[in-house]
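Usage

Read records sequentially. Each one opens with the input sequence:
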Amino acid sequence: MPKLGVRAYIIALPIAIKDRDVENAWRAYAGECLRLMTENTAKMGGGSYIQAKWADIINPRPTDNRTGEEIVADVIKNAGLTLITSGKEELEKG
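and closes with the structure output:
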């Protein structure tokens, strides 16, 4: 971008952000098309292919290190559910 004043930047910023978003969307689309073409070609030829998407490689999702019990407790809490167990007391007595 050329050297601009503050007002010009305020006016130009939404346009620049939109242009950047369009460019990023195009790159994601083109990358996914290329990945699918190589996958289809490899399947026809019996070869291997990259299964990971470019977006997942450059922006990996954080790993969830919670135990299964912690995940269940979070789901129950976030959904507003109440856990009802039946027969547990009878097993402890018997």
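Summary fields computed downstream for this record:
- The two ends are 79 Å apart (CA to CA).
- The CA atoms of residues 49 and 61 lie 21 Å apart.
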